Amino acid sequence: MTTWITICETCKRDDWAERGMTQSDGELLAEAIEASVAQDSAIRTRRVACTMGCERACNVIIQGAGKIGYSLGKFDGTPEDGAAIAQYARLHLASETGQVPFRTWPQGVKGHFVSRHLPVPQAEGEENATA
User: Strands 3-8, 43-48: parallel, antiparallel or unpaired by DSSP?
Assistant: First the structure.
């Protein structure tokens, strides 16, 4: 199995221009996450132009086939953010359902969850299933 981290590379925090940034905050976060998962062959990353969560920049989506996925936001784009997101992705990967017990969450992702996405139904009759 693979866990994917989708990263909005165009995210800019509200004070982006005032800080005189040459890269978007999303690009910085993407670099931090990519460095943190470089040795994890079962965790893949992809950069996208927008996840439509601009009011909570920086945003990522953690998901895997047949598993619950999660959107997270309001990161700063630091190496510490990248490491916390990578650690949560490892826990997501190890989970059969994608659910990760709160007590095991890295501190750096607590308070950043935006929404939960149930897996797409794979068979007739699963459309009303809940997790």
Answer: parallel
Coil vs helix vs strand at 59: coil
Establish if 78 belongs to a structural domain. Answer: yes
- Count up the domains in the chain and report the number: 1
Closest listed residue to residue 70, CA positions, set 39, 42, 110, 31: 110
The percent of residues above 70 in pLDDT, for the chain, comes to 94
What does DSSP say about strands 60-63 and 3-8: parallel, antiparallel, or unpaired? antiparallel
Residue 131, domain member (yes or no): no
Q: Are 10 and 24 in contact (CB under 8 A)?
A: yes
Q: How far apart are CA 88 and CA 106, in angstroms?
A: 6
- pLDDT band, residue 17 (cuts 50/70/90): confident
- For residues 71 and 85, give the distance between their C-alpha atoms in angstroms, rounded to a whole number: 11
CA dist 24 → 16, 27, 65 (Å): 8, 5, 29
Question: What is the extent of the structural domain holding 21?
Answer: 3-117
pTM of the model: 0.91
